[in-house]
Amino acid sequence: MDPLADALAMSGVKGVLSTRVEAGGRWAIALEDYPGTALHAVTAGSAWLAVPDHEPVELVAGDVVLLPGDTPHILTNDPAADTAHGRCEHVIARGRGTGEVISLGAQPATTRVVTIHYDCDPAALTQVLALLPGLVHVRAETGTPGLADAVRMLARELAEPQLATSAVLKSLIDIMLVQMLRAWLAANPPECFGTWLGALYDPVIGKALHHLHANPAVPWTTSSLAKAIAVSRATLARRFPAATGHTPAAYLANWRMELAAVQLRDSHDSLDTIAEAVGYGSVPAFTRAFTRVFGRTPGRYRNDTRKYAGSAFQLDSSPTSSLTVG
Asked: What CATH number should be reported for the domain whose range is 202-325?
């Protein structure tokens, strides 16, 4: 089992290719009104990213940056230039899913930036992207081979469209997010300490999460979970809440509800099937527990969240729930 992939699936994360910038000479573009997290990948040349209350960030070919939704920001060749008097093109990014090319500047294009935005189900309890800091920047020289390969493949597919390019781009959009998260988490574990993301890198808690995610219907206790990962009960009881903010029992209860929510959202399984898969012996008991957490009955939740059923990161509907990306 893969807790990070599980969490992406439960968040209902979906990505779409948005604006493509091709620029040369003097240029600037203000990207506004993103419905979710914005990812910019520089595939050629260089650019500066200007974000309010943040020092300008230089981006070079191979760099990738993530910004939270609704963050106004500017991409430009010169962060010191006055962008308020005619040189800055303003683009409303909401609804752009075609990868439209925007050409900027009076000189031949030397800089190319691909923008993707990722949306998620706001009803999900687990919001992976919300755990990240306001600006995540992975530099080409400190990234991973996987991220570098993804950026190159994205650039090549856009530059030379072929048969089934749309299918390839759909998968690459998902892969870009996963590879960036891998690269950033590997390079910045201290920034994640005390969060769920940091718990994935804890050698003890990571194993415990693996067991809880792999077998949610098992009536785990702190003692049985400690035995399964070969640590003392006292060690697990101390470290698990410090890493996740919950006791193992509370985490399991939340994870069961998260898993049930995904199955309600993404499958047509009956309430009996879902209740059994997440460790409840009866539908009434499951319904009471689910309603306490989500404030809605399972049936109402299913109706309200159907619009997120096309998540790119899908949970298998089987009780042991594995994930596939793309």
From this structure: 1.10.10.60
